[in-house]
Write a structure and sequence with these properties.
Oligomer: single chain
Largest sheet: 8 strands, mixed
CATH class: Alpha Beta
Order of helices and strands: EHHEHEEEHEEHHEH
CATH topology: Rossmann fold
Number of domains: 1
Shape: globular
Radius of gyration: 25 Å
Strand content: 15-25%
């Protein structure tokens, strides 16, 4: 059941879109679809186009704070629409924004929001963006949670999926219920949600398992070396190796 009106989180959607040359030629804009869908639910939505890194950074450093100031009492949901791959996203002018750089841009925003930034990353392999939270030496998180696709969804699938996601949130549904709805609506089951602390803990567990495996391997090698050394000593003193 949806949450009652009084308990629903009030939010607005801030879209940064970086379309490819082909998208621009065909006048294809996921951002326009998202904005119309969000506005139909009575939710404010801002759409900025960023064709290069300078424009992208300006959207976050200037555009987003201005939108937050214009919407007091509402939490922003950051929606990034761009072509992507395992290492980051690609902007309109073919510049690459690596996860490490995007992390640095998001850290102060999430801190300002007291770790409440929800990021919707609409790109191929956007789920790899969870790497932004996998920093053991840094206590800060670049987001509270990330919604993204782990594979290479169709353009139509992402547009339908996120329009559905925001519609369900506007109805007062929980994030995971909205996630289920976007999977059904788009027909794509590879949309996932992950909280930043889960990504970091999973990474820590992975590193610890590697360390444990390395320690075990070294112990086994040491045991073999010790056994070999003992055999040499026995032969040196004319003694037989114990059977």
């Amino acid at each position: 059941m949806p949450l009652p009106e009084s308990e629903r989180i009030k939010f607005f959607v801030f879209v940064i879109e970086s379309p490819s040359a082909v998208d621009l030629y065909h006048r294809r804009s996921e951002g326009d679809i998202i904005r119309q869908a969000v506005n139909l639910n009575g939710i404010p939505c801002y759409l900025l186009t960023a064709i290069n890194i300078e424009a992208f950074e300006a959207a976050l450093r200037i555009g987003l704070p201005e939108a937050m100031e214009a919407n007091p009492g509402r939490v922003p949901i950051l929606h990034i629409s761009a072509h992507g791959f395992q290492e980051g996203i690609q902007l309109s002018n073919s510049e690459i924004l690596l996860w490490a750089r995007l992390r640095q841009l998001l850290l102060p925003i999430n801190k300002e929001l007291s770790n409440a930034l929800l990021v919707c990353l609409s790109s191929c392999e956007g789920y790899a963006g969870t790497r932004m939270a996998m920093y053991i030496e840094d206590d800060g998180y670049p987001f509270f949670a990330l919604i993204a696709n782990a594979e290479k969804p169709l353009w139509s699938e992402t547009a339908i999926a996120y329009s559905t996601f925001y519609h369900w949130l506007a109805r007062g549904e929980y994030v995971l219920h909205a996630l289920d709805a976007m999977r059904v609506a788009s027909g794509n089951k590879t949309f996932f949600a992950e909280m930043a602390h889960e990504s970091r803990q999973g990474y820590i567990n992975y590193i610890q398992s590697l360390n444990a495996e390395a320690i075990q391997t070294n112990l086994e090698k040491q045991a073999v070396n010790d056994q070999s050394g003992n055999s040499i000593k026995l032969r040196k003193y004319g003694l037989n190796q114990p059977s």
